[in-house]
Design brief:
Helix content is 57%, strand content 11%. The chain has 481 residues and is α+β, with helices and mostly antiparallel strands. Strands 9-10-11-13-12 form a five-stranded mixed sheet. Strands 1-2 form a two-stranded antiparallel ribbon. Helix 12 links the parallel strand 9 and strand 10. The N terminus is likely disordered. It catalyses: ATP + protein L-histidine = ADP + protein N-phospho-L-histidine. This is histidine kinase.
Length: 481
């Protein structure tokens, strides 16, 4: 690919690949600094299952929509239970029967990973019918390669817990649905017995008499006003008091079972809390660095520029006078010191967080390529803009790797590739040097070790490939946010 020269009147030109065009820059929305964001704009992930309150809770339980949605939940889970049990039995039996042919491992790994969809279905049912929000477990991330998929599938704890839920929920779903339906039918039947008993077939008692009412004991039939009134009272008790409590309690039991087996474990919850805390810390640190860079640029740097201008003006004014040589030398020295301090401050500000990152990672990398002593070929293929903290880490990695290649590789060119892979950012820096940089960060010097540590703060990875004779390729993978 033929590189195009990036023009910068204040810097040494570098080489930038043609597909990194300014048109890409316009697609990136402006990021609002962390310090300017409203606290309501940050969303904390649900780490525990929650219930959503709905209106109408002041009415008797029988007349609440939540009670009838729970009743519907029992019916739906009753219909799904046989399919779940069949899936669980098929996974174990088919995988075990084919294990001797090695195909069983593939089948079992795929079915275990596929069991996660059962968890998704039941979490949706719990949220829609029971107002119980159950967070999803950690996303399934298979390792690369065929054997990596086997290991990931067979060791997927969320998949195995979903299979366990299929087996256990078959019993609980059938039991819950049968109990709820039975108690409701019994209550309604008792309340209306006075009406429909007349269509019952007649029964002969021991004394030879005939009766149509329900027989509740030998030769004891529900007939007459007081027996019918007692039956109505039992029906009212079952329908309006016992059944709603039983129905909703069994639904809560089902939801608790789903939360325990289909949601994240306590360890995963703790990991999510730590990840959220770390993400907040990283974003806060990046925002503070950006603020420091702005303060240096708008405050201290402006003051140094003013001092340098005033000293320069003083030099010009006394240039044609008979001022003492010591004074002229002092002004010259002070002016030079102010200019040096200004240059040092600009370098410090760029090291803290380059202002060019405000325009996007692609623009910052183009600026880096343009100022590099060696030709840098940049290919930027990232369709979305990462978070500011990730952008800063990616830029510092690229800058450090380009600097290392210039100093130590002995090559004549450097290639920088940025693209999106598996919902993450991949940065690859390649030089055509002598190689031998080592296969791990421990043997690659403190610079690369520091980069690896920085990358790990956002769950990224850094890999080095540097055989003797070259080329050296350092690959950094980062999340987009």
């Amino acid at each position: 690919m033929t590189p195009t020269r990036a023009s910068d009147p204040d810097t040494t030109p570098g080489l930038v690949e043609a597909d990194s065009t300014p048109a890409q820059h316009s697609r990136h929305p402006r990021h609002v600094p962390h310090s300017e964001r409203s606290p309501h704009s940050e969303r904390t992930p649900h780490l525990q299952s929650t219930r959503v309150s709905r209106p109408g809770t002041g009415r008797p339980a029988f007349f609440r929509s939540s009670t009838w949605r729970a009743f519907g939940y029992h019916w739906v889970t009753l219909l799904l239970a046989p399919f779940g049990l069949a899936y669980a039995v098929t996974t174990v039996s088919l995988g075990a029967s084919l294990l001797v042919t090695f195909v069983g491992l593939i089948v079992m790994a795929a079915l275990v990973a596929g069991a996660r969809s059962w968890g998704t279905l039941h979490r949706s049912l719990a949220a829609g019918l029971l107002d119980r929000e159950i967070p999803a477990p950690v996303r399934f991330a298979p390792r690369p390669g065929f054997f990596g998929f086997l290991r990931s599938g067979l060791a997927d704890g969320a998949g195995w817990r979903a299979l366990s839920h299929m087996a256990v929920s078959f019993v609980t779903s059938v039991l819950s649905a049968c109990l709820s339906i039975t108690f409701l039918a019994a209550g309604l039947g008792c309340m209306t017995h006075w009406y429909w008993y007349q269509w019952l077939p007649p029964q002969e008692a021991g004394d030879g008499t005939w009766h149509r009412g329900s027989m509740i004991a030998p030769d004891v039939y529900v007939e007459g006003f007081w027996w019918q009134a007692a039956y109505v009272g039992v029906g009212l008790l079952l329908t309006f008091l016992i059944w709603p409590s039983l129905n909703n309690g069994l639904a809560r039991l089902q939801a608790s079972l789903a939360a325990g087996l289909l949601g994240p474990t306590a360890a995963q919850d703790r990991v999510r809390e730590l990840e959220a805390s770390r993400s907040s810390s990283v974003a806060g640190a990046d925002a503070r660095l950006a603020q420091i860079e702005r303060d240096l640029h708008d405050g201290t740097q402006a003051q140094l520029v003013a001092i340098a201008m005033k000293l320069g003006d003083a030099k010009d004014r006394i240039a044609g006078t008979e001022a003492p040589a010591e004074l002229q030398h002092l002004l010259d020295t002070a002016h030079g010191t102010a200019k040096d301090a200004l240059e040092d401050l600009r370098g410090i500000a760029r090291g803290i967080r380059p202002a060019v990152l405000n325009d996007g990672l692609d623009t910052a990398l183009e600026s880096l390529a343009a100022t590099a002593p060696l030709p840098v070929y940049l290919s930027y293929r990232l369709p979305v803009r990462p978070s500011p903290a990730v952008e800063a880490i990616a830029y510092y990695c690229a800058a450090e790797l380009v600097t290392n290649a210039v100093k130590h590789s002995g090559g004549s060119r450097i290639s920088v590739l940025v693209l999106q892979e598996d919902s993450g950012l991949t940065l690859s820096v390649k030089d055509e040097g002598a190689g031998g940089a080592g296969s791990g960060t421990e043997s690659a010097g403190t610079g690369l070790a520091g980069l690896a540590e920085r990358v790990r703060t956002v769950d990224g990875t850094l890999r080095i490939s540097s055989p003797d004779g070259g080329p050296t390729v350092v690959t950094v993978r980062l999340p987009l946010s």
